[in-house]
Amino acid sequence: MKSLVSLTCFILLVAACNMPEKKGETTSTDSAKAGMESSEDVTYPYTLDKPYKNWKSGDKKNTQIVLNMLKAWETKKVAECASYFGDSVDLAVDYYHGVIKKDSIPAMLERSWADYENLNIKMDDWESVISEDKKDEWVTVWYKQSWTDKKGKMDSLAIVNDAKIVNGKIVVFDEKVRHFPKK
Q1: For the chain, percent helix, then strand, then coil, each to nearest 5?
Q2: 115 three-state secondary structure
Q3: In terms of Cα–Cα distance, which of 47, 54, 78 is closest to 129?
Q4: Residue 106 falls within a domain, yes or no?
Q5: Does the residue 151 lie in any domain?
Q6: What 3-state DSSP class applies to 54?
Q7: pTM of the predicted model, to two decimals?
Q8: For residue 141, what are the domain limits?
Q9: Which of 22, 85, 110, 132 has the fewest CB atoms within 10 Å, i.e. the most exposed one?
Q10: What is the pLDDT along the chain (183 residues), one digit of tens a residue?
């Protein structure tokens, strides 16, 4: 009896999967896709200085470069961390913006650890994209950084990093932070 019920369920499942869709009917998945790929003209309340770039999913190796760089920084591997950057880096981090030459990066990384006793990164998500014209490749990472300073005080930040990758090296590193409210 059990085998008859199992066989009947299997046949119904196969039949349901192979049923042709009726014309004019759409599934919720089709509707969602149609909404995302709509070709309607849309008027936005803002304009862009540069024309819109049609972004596509980027190379996973670029994501690996950025994640490896962050891991090397988190674990105080200064030389390895510096190796992921280009000859010069347009660096924008909390309270600082400037162009750093490659030979200055190790000293800057050492200074970045001056007040930390320990540090931990908990990654939330990442995305690698490339422009349709293949001229711009970026990786964005979202994470929470927690630390204990040399005085024993614990704190944390929510961070988003955008890294522009050129020839396998980070040439722009733009960090945005959200300071958590004090308790």
Answers
A1: 30, 40, 30
A2: coil
A3: 54
A4: yes
A5: yes
A6: coil
A7: 0.73
A8: 56-179
A9: 22
A10: 445 444 454 454 445 555 555 554 444 444 444 445 556 788 889 887 876 678 899 999 999 999 999 999 999 999 999 999 999 999 999 889 999 999 999 999 999 999 899 999 999 999 999 998 889 999 999 999 999 999 999 999 999 999 999 999 999 999 999 987 777
